[in-house]
């Protein structure tokens, strides 16, 4: 057997997360590739949520519809998962609570009570799952102890006992699941983290030392991660009164020499758009992490969508450069977050990292990120007397950026149209020169753009085109289809449009856009840029990421 | 050579109306900055939008003239990132108490070491004569054609209620008095509010220079500014309004001094870099 898809489902606050975190830690420890993603309702208690965990011999980075093993914690879980429960799905849990005919009864709570209380029920469940996975018991038990290391010897011992009992009951279920999954020794040196963690680490690698935000799901994930890192790195983290304050604070921080990050979601980002324009006008760097969720307005607060691309590229009034990056996997989450700071500093412009709820909340095993030896250098100059912040004359529109307190000069920035020194002007020639300066940066950024990456058959007939978090499900669907003449063009850099895109499209007979939104916002941009219309658009706006099966079927229907 | 380090060698083209109280406030500001001996390269003037918010354009120092109402978040960050700088935020009553009202409240809570000078002329100037948050009830304008009905914002009482450590009211007609108060505000460690009464000669025919003279009085000699309750009572007084430092307390620690980044290391962020070995360890902590 190559892999297993396990789903845990129940109410918020019922313990899904404890089972999930313990199980994934044990599986990683046993050198399995692990992928986990969750979907949850916008409520703190109750409702019905689920977490999917894939445990595999090979790297897995996308969600699947198939459920091999289901652990329902409530009656509602069965209805919630609907037709994802098939005859082949093994359903294990407390029959007295769940009341599902087809399930195998395993009374976690009763077993936990024998150990000392209902609090151990989750560990009992983990024990049973590990037995079904045929992970060696002793190694697992060491893992359980390590998991509860900080809780003291008594808690460790009780959980080890709960685990042993759960494991024994799991074994007693008989073969249940087919052959054991082979571990992959390579997993030993790998890391396992969420998209939010990847963005946070990338930001640190990019020299981020100031973070401000107003809490908003799912953007808060990066705020929380950075707050934790502020214990060990010199990072100022401040929760601000509103997103307008957030963005203006971040621009003030960059002006004074920091590398600031804001993190938000669509509604909060909308409030920042005047400040985005300010960053464009005063040519001060700005980095925003925008974790998308379905809109309009409050929309589906805890679910996922790629619906804010237009919002991002059209943010702010007036003409100026904005760079939009969209990671498709954890490595890109790290490397693009890092690049965002370098790009913002280099082009003295706003840079947005577009992720989504699915991306920030999902996690999996991946090779450790490569880090440079030296920290990034702040791209600022020591000013001399007579320094002018907006000196004209460079072909790329970039003038050396001074910061107050560094050098003898003064650094004057004004949201009004200004002259080279930063002083307000309505001189027509100066206005035109400043517009040209700002526009030159757009051209320069396009030249520096990260080009799209082609996966699959280089002599393709059908070209799939996507951006951001659809990357992983598309790649796995393509692998499942195994068709010659099929390729996927992935855009980690989505705006301004990299050059050479038309050539990719013209080489195909059929072009298919794949996005997680209702209209195909990126497809529109590609059409605008290339003049080539997509033959089909695969779209989705139900608040969930594509499953591999769903994409496989929808792509297959077009071939 | 200009006699004041913060003035320009050639006279700047100032866009205020002739007779505007802003000119007097500028004289007070330049004098205060000069007399305090602040190194010119270490001052940042921060403002939003409005006639008063153009002040940084007319001070020969670094400045950040951002968006309407948003001076305080930017100023807070500048001071937090570079505590070695002197940061002065300046703007009008509409900018700071209207559009920026929420930031004013939260700057008061955070207590960054910033001096905030608010030009209070009880009217909107740059947008030509509409009501300000501080306009008196009954004032008629081209928009409030039946007269203002909302209660005017009381910045003195609000700031004292928020426990701002330096709360003062000045009057542009008293240049020396305003200079003295500005100097104390800049020296105060923490958020300092100076609300400066000034006439708007173009749009406020009600609250004129004469009106301010007739409706204010200087706090008496021997007034004790360290009694918060007494200061609050004074802040509620109207017609005449008291002028001077109503409340002063060194009790609260400034925002940036409380930031963990400065607990052991006092250097501004621009002089630091992350430890890449620590970052490598942070990545491998996910193994």
Q: In words, what does this structure look like?
A:
The complex is a heterodimer of chains A (559) and B (287). By secondary structure, chain A is α/β, with parallel strands linked by helices. In chain A, the strands form 4 sheets. In chain A, strands 6-5-4-1-3-2-14-7 form an 8-stranded mixed sheet. Chain A starts with a strand and ends with a helix. With 287 residues, chain B is α/β, with parallel strands linked by helices. Chain B has a single domain, classed as 3-Layer(aba) Sandwich (Rossmann fold). In chain B, 30% of the residues lie in helices and 16% in strands. Chain B has helices spanning 21-36, 71-81, 93-99, 101-110, 155-161, 175-187, 209-214, 228-235, 276-284, and strands at residues 43-47, 62-65, 86-92, 114-120, 166-171, 192-197, 216-218, 241-248. Chain B has an 8-stranded mixed sheet with strand order 2-1-3-4-6-5-8-7, with helices on both faces. In chain B, helix 8 links the parallel strand 7 (216-218) and strand 8 (241-248). The interface between A and B is large, with 70 and 54 residues.
Report the CATH superfamily of the largest domain in chain A.
Pyruvate-ferredoxin oxidoreductase, PFOR, domain III
Largest sheet of chain B: 8 strands, mixed
The figure for the number of domains of chain A is 4
List the chains of the largest interface with their residue counts: A-B, 70 and 54 residues
Distance between the termini of chain A: 30 Å
- Low-pLDDT segments, ≥5 res of chain B: none
Question: Helix share of residues of chain B?
Answer: 25-40%
Q: How much strand content do the residues of chain A show?
A: 15-25%
- Top-tier CATH class of chain B: Alpha Beta
Strand order of the largest sheet of chain B: 2-1-3-4-6-5-8-7
Low-confidence stretches of chain A: none
Mean pLDDT of chain B: 97
Distance between the termini of chain B: 64 Å
Strand order of the largest sheet of chain A: 6-5-4-1-3-2-14-7
Multimeric status of the protein: heterodimer
Task: State the CATH architecture of chain B.
Answer: 3-Layer(aba) Sandwich
Predict the CATH topology of chain B.
Answer: Rossmann fold
**Secondary structural class of chain B:** alpha/beta
What overall form of chain B do the CA principal axes indicate?
Answer: globular
């Amino acid at each position: 057997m190559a892999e297993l898809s396990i789903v845990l489902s129940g109410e918020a606050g019922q313990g899904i997360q404890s089972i999930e975190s313990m199980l994934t830690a044990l599986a990683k420890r046993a050198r399995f590739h692990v992928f986990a993603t969750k979907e949850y309702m916008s409520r703190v208690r109750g409702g019905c949520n689920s977490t999917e965990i894939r445990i595999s011999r090979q790297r897995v980075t996308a969600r699947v519809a198939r459920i091999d093993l289901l652990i329902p914690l409530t009656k509602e879980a069965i209805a919630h998962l609907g037709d994802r429960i098939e005859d082949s799905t093994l359903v294990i849990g407390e029959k007295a609570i769940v009341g599902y005919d087809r399930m195998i009864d395993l009374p976690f709570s009763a077993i936990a009570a024998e150990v000392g209380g209902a609090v151990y029920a989750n560990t009992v469940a983990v024990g049973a799952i590990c037995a079904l996975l045929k992970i060696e018991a002793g190694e697992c038990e060491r893992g359980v102890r390590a998991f509860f290391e900080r809780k003291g010897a008594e808690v460790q011992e009780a959980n080890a006992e709960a685990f042993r009992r759960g494991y024994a009951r799991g074994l007693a279920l008989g073969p249940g699941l087919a052959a054991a999954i082979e571990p992959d020794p390579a997993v030993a040196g790998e890391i396992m983290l969420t998209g939010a963690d990847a963005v946070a680490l990338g930001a640190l690698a990019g020299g981020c030392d100031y973070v401000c935000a107003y809490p908003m799901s799912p953007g808060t994930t990066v705020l929380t991660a950075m707050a934790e890192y502020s214990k060990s790195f010199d990072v100022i983290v401040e929760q601000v009164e509103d997103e307008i304050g957030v963005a203006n604070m971040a621009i003030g921080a960059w002006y004074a020499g920091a590398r600031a990050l804001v993190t938000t979601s669509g509604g909060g980002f909308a409030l920042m758009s005047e400040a985005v324009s300010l960053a464009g006008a005063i040519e001060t760097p700005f980095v925003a992490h925008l974790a998308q969720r379905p809109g309009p307005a409050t929309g589906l607060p805890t679910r996922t969508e790629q619906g804010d691309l237009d919002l991002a590229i059209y943010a702010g009034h007036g003409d100026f450069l904005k760079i939009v990056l969209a990671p498709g996997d954890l490595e890109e989450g790290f490397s693009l977050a890092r690049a965002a700071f370098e790009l913002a500093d280099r082009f003295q412009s706003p840079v947005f990292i577009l992720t989504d709820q699915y991306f920030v909340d999902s996690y999996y095993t991946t090779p450790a990120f490569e880090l440079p030896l030296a920290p990034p250098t702040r791209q600022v100059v020591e000013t001399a007397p007579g320094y002018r912040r907006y000196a004209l004359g460079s072909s790329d529109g970039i003038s050396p950026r001074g910061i107050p307190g560094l050098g003898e000069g003064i650094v004057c920035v004004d949201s009004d149209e200004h002259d080279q020194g930063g002083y307000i002007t309505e001189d027509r020639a100066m206005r035109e020169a400043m517009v040209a300066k700002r526009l030159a940066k757009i051209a320069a950024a396009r030249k520096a753009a990260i080009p799209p990456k082609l996966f699959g058959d280089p002599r393709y007939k059908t070209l799939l085109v996507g951006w951001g978090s659809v990357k992983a499900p598309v790649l796995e669907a393509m692998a499942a289809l195994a068709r010659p003449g099929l390729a996927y063009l992935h855009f980690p850099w989505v705006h301004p449009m990299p050059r050479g895109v038309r050539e990719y499209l013209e080489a195909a007979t059929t072009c298919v856009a794949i996005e997680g939104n209702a209209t195909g916002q990126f497809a529109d941009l590609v059409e605008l840029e290339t003049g080539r219309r997509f033959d089909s658009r695969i779209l989705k706006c139900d608040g969930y990421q594509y499953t591999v099966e769903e994409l496989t079927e929808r792509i297959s229907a077009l071939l | 050579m200009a006699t004041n380090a913060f003035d320009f060698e050639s006279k700047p083209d100032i866009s205020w109306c002739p007779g505007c109280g802003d000119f007097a406030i500028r004289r007070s500001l330049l004098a205060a900055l000069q007399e305090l001996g602040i190194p010119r390269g270490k001052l940042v003037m921060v403002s939003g939008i409005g006639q008063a918010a153009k002040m940084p354009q007319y001070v020969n120092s670094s400045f950040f003239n951002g968006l309407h109402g948003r001076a305080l978040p930017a100023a807070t960050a500048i001071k937090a990132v570079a505590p070695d700088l002197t940061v002065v935020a300046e703007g009008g009553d509409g900018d700071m108490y209207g559009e920026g009202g929420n930031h004013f409240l939260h700057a008061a809570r955070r207590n960054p070491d910033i001096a905030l000078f608010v030009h209070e002329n009880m009217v909107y100037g740059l947008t030509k004569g509409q009501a300000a948050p501080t306009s008196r009830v009954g004032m008629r304008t081209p928009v409030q054609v039946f007269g203002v009905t909302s209660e005017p914002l009381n910045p003195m009482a609000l700031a004292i209620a928020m426990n701002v450590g330096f709360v003062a009211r000045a009057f542009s007609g008293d240049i020396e008095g305003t200079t003295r108060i500005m100097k104390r505000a800049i020296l105060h460690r923490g958020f300092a509010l100076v609300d400066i009464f000034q006439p708007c000669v173009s749009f406020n025919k009600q609250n004129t220079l004469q009106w301010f003279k007739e409706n204010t009085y200087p706090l008496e000699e021997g007034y004790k500014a360290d009694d918060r309750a007494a200061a609050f009572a004074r802040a509620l007084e109207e017609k005449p309004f008291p002028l001077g430092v109503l409340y002063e307390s060194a009790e609260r620690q400034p925002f940036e001094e409380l930031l963990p980044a400065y607990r052991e290391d006092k250097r501004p962020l621009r002089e630091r870099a992350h430890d890449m070995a620590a970052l490598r360890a942070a990545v491998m902590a996910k193994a």
